[in-house]
Design goal:
- The complex is a heterodimer.
- By secondary structure, chain A is of the alpha+beta class.
- Chain A contains four helices and seven strands.
- In chain A, the strands form two sheets. Chain A has a four-stranded antiparallel beta sheet with strand order 2-1-7-6. Chain A has a three-stranded antiparallel beta sheet with strand order 3-4-5.
- Chain B is built from six helices and no strands.
- In chain B, α1 packs across α3 and α3 packs antiparallel against α4.
- The two termini of chain B are 17 Å apart.
- The chains are: A alpha+beta, B mainly alpha.
- The interface between A and B is large, with 40 and 43 residues.
């Protein structure tokens, strides 16, 4: 049984948790401020499926379970064969970051950044997988795009 | 006030409360998804779980919670959702029981922390399953959401407790 009445401890607890959460959010967005060139990374079962430019509208079929769409710089999951459809109803991703996950199909749509000033692990992986010829800010797919034209 | 004197009655009451928790889960599954982010639920079941924790103890709370997670998972979810719910529920009970033990917190505070812990537990399990998820972004959002719903749940439980009083067993005559 609980005879304690609502008091300072509870407020401290609630505000403390809220403050911790807000600090994490600030840290994340601060982290994101130094990046350029956001790209969409799609992984299936932890293996990279593809990396796509957010400025190019595209509809991407992922295996035969999911379909996502890049439109106007945002990413949405437009169809999936999972029972809960959480991924389809998730808020669209913008260039600022975030991710959409289809857990039953192990599909992850993630905004990553091709060039980054402070070399953290994921971004370096993106760099090497993009295989840019020049070391300048060309962290995109210009060669592949011109091939596709 | 803990009810330990009659094992049969205790089993019956706990069974009823478990059924109630499952019902709450059903109601929650009917409500249309109101948040854009996966994994944010109202946590209505936690009203019942918190009541069990307060009136019976943490072991009973774990039992009722585990049962309702499995049943709800089989009825309305999938194997993944059972894992996430279980992780969240257990962490939530752990935190809530610890806070309750100190005797320094009101129901609303305990529920708020428990709600946040519930969501954190879920995302930790999800992270173990699929390490790709950018934890850093989901965690604070879910923490805040869990905090908010926890406060609401806490207010509900508080009102229930005020009406239930210290003895929830109306039959005094033994």
């Amino acid at each position: 049984m609980n005879k304690k009445s609502f008091g300072r401890n509870d407020l401290l607890l609630i505000l403390g948790i809220a403050a911790a959460a807000i600090l994490m959010l600030l840290a994340y967005y601060h982290h994101m401020r130094y990046v350029e060139n956001p790209m969409l990374e799609i992984t299936v079962d932890n293996k990279t499926y593809g990396i796509y430019d957010l400025d190019k509208d595209a509809r991407i079929q992922i295996n035969d379970t999911n379909v996502c769409e890049i439109h106007d710089g945002t990413v949405r999951m437009i169809s999936a064969d999972c029972p809960d459809q959480v991924c389809v109803h998730s808020s669209p991703l913008t260039k600022r970051g975030g991710s959409i996950v289809c857990l039953p199909n192990r599909v992850v749509l993630r905004i990553i950044h091709a060039e980054k000033s402070d070399g953290s692990g994921q971004e370096e992986k993106a760099n090497s997988s993009l295989n840019s010829v020049s070391s300048s800010s060309a962290g995109r797919y210009p060669q592949i795009d011109s091939l596709a034209e | 006030m803990k009810m330990k004197n009659n094992a049969a009655r205790k089993a019956a009451v706990l069974g009823l409360l478990t059924a109630l928790a499952i019902l709450f889960g059903y109601v929650e599954s009917i409500l249309p998804i109101n948040f854009g982010i996966p994994g944010i639920k109202l946590g209505l079941c936690n009203v019942v779980i918190l009541i069990v924790l307060l009136y019976f103890g943490w072991k009973e709370a774990v039992l009722v919670s585990a049962m309702r997670v499995v049943v709800i998972g089989f009825l309305f979810g999938n194997l993944f959702s059972i894992a996430y719910s279980l992780g969240g529920a257990m962490l939530s009970i752990l935190i809530s029981a610890l806070l309750l033990q100190t005797g320094r917190f009101h129901v609303i505070g305990i529920s708020a922390a428990g709600g946040a812990a519930h969501n954190i537990g879920q995302i930790l399990v999800a992270f173990l399953v699929t390490p790709q998820i950018p934890l850093l972004w989901y965690m604070p959002v879910l923490m805040l959401a869990g905090l908010a719903t926890g406060i609401l749940i806490g207010i509900v439980v508080w009102n229930v407790m005020r009406r239930l009083g210290s003895m929830h067993d109306p039959q005094q005559a033994e």
